[in-house]
Amino acid sequence: MDRLRQRTGKRFGTADDGLLVIEQPGAMLEASRRWRRDGKTIGLVPTMGALHAGHLSLVELARRENEVVVVSIFVNPIQFGPGEDFARYPRDPGRDARLLHEAEVDAIYEPSAGVMYPPDAGTRVHVGDVAEPLEGKARPGHFEGVATVVMKLFAAVEPDRAYFGQKDAQQVAVVKRLTRDLDLGVEIRVGPIVREPDGLALSSRNVYLDPAERKAAASLSAGLRGAADAYAAGERDPNELRRVLSAPMNSEPLVRLEYAEVVDPATFQKPGTLAVLAARVGKTRLIDNHDLRLPFLG
What's the whole-number mean pLDDT along residues 161-169? Predict the structure, then answer.
């Protein structure tokens, strides 16, 4: 790996056991193809950093299922719209590297925005109908940014499997459709939502919440729990399920509900069994979801 080490330029940890940090797509591809020539399977966990237990649960799953694990850390500018939180999105690369070193990850792929999107780069990936409702409507261009960066990550890493969290359920559906439609040959693995004791889904954006907002944010999971309980009791009317889902957030002064729907988890069309919601708690936008066919354990 000497030539590769010269091209990547740095490691986290000691020279013998250090975590390889790769900043260029060519060096990433070289490393991946060398691992593949050695007969090793590769798992990729795409992240935007600011890692928490939800991310680390995906790393653990990838570690169990692959001989090599790569975690990408890239705050993708083209999936943020005007006025969104790209500039202040939480970043802590030193802490991220320590956590990934402890998790025995083999490499971090950490390209810069300039490397990913040179000034004359104009190509974007449009996925279609699954990307249009809900998050697609609320955040125009968001899923084109997601699909484009996923294509670039897959091209650089050439993973056998890629790991995404269920919390971003519509993103999962978009990535699955992208992978299927373009015959990418990557197995998409989905890890369950990791929650706080009161049910709030872990998110890098939770750090924005002040104490009052953090307490109010529990209304999101309360809505999901209520809808799951209603479904388990036999309720199937989409309008009633939406009412139950929305009620805790509508009664919380610090929460402004953007949408609450019950959709098909593969197409994101109505009706279905996946309860999805987005809400602003103070100035912080949070999303969450739950498959109503399952008990809510948060």
Answer: 98
Neighbouring-strand partners of residue 164: 190
**pTM, whole model, 2 decimals?**
0.94
Is the bond leading into 25 cis (omega within 30 degrees of zero)?
no
Give me the CATH topology for the region 2-191. Answer: Rossmann fold (3.40.50)
Confidence at residue 10, expressed as pLDDT on a 0 to 100 scale: 56
Domains 2-191 and 204-291 share a fold: no
Specify whether domain 204-291 bears CATH 2.60.40.290. no
- The residue extents of the domains of the chain are 2-191, 204-291
pLDDT, tens digit (0-9, with 9 covering 90-100), for 42-61: 999 999 999 999 999 999 99
Is 55 labeled as catalytic in the residue annotation? yes
Residue 169's nearest CA partner among 78, 278, 243 is 278
Q: Identify the active-site residue in 52, 55, 101, 290.
A: 55
Backbone angles phi, psi at 137, to 5 degrees: -75, -40
**Bridge partners, 291 (sequence order):** 274
